[in-house]
Amino acid sequence: MAALLLACSLTACGGADKPAVPKSTVKASAPEHEVDCSDTSLDQADWMEHCSEADGAGTGGDGGPSTDLPFGKAYAWPDGLEVTVLDAKVFTDWDEYEEPDPKSNEFRIRLKVDNKSEGSVDLNQLSIMVDGATNGGTAASSSFTRGSAPLEGRIASGVSAVKTDDNALEKRYGKDIVVTVQRATDDGFEVFPEFTGTIK
After folding, report:
1. Contact 102, 90 (CB under 8 A)
2. Whether the model pTM is above 0.85
3. Which of 145, 166, 174, 186 is most buried when burial is the number of CB atoms within 10 A of its CB?
4. Contact yes or no for 193/83 (Cβ under 8 A)
């Protein structure tokens, strides 16, 4: 019985006399560094570990941001297909059968597609939707002859290509735009990245 009482006193039976955890122990268990979940250069592993439950919309299937991406910033789907909106420029290289609409900004988007997946990808999976970013408006799809490189055909694993998408947006909606890259596949990638920029 004496031995049992001695054991209890040594292990602080009952919890009332349990010593507080030293501050140094608490500090040691804290994260070594703070993670800025809005940092677009944050690698995927850190984002998944620290930010996947963070408050904030716009996270893609790969754990990275999928909205408010600036032109020139890449987005990658989980299978490795990567897309970047390079720029949007007013189109002026008309052929003899085309003429500009004075009421619209007619422009060409250049889109880089980089296939880092393990197999070839059908570019017909991709489509572009463009909206005005200032006070609304949706761009009408168009097709300018000269220099056109539409999203069609297949792209092999390890290959990148620059494609084009032509549009017209009424001038009253301004030149700031949001470019949404939609992808339809049997794999069900539901995240469509949105890129923001200005028609130059």
Report:
1. no
2. no
3. 166
4. yes
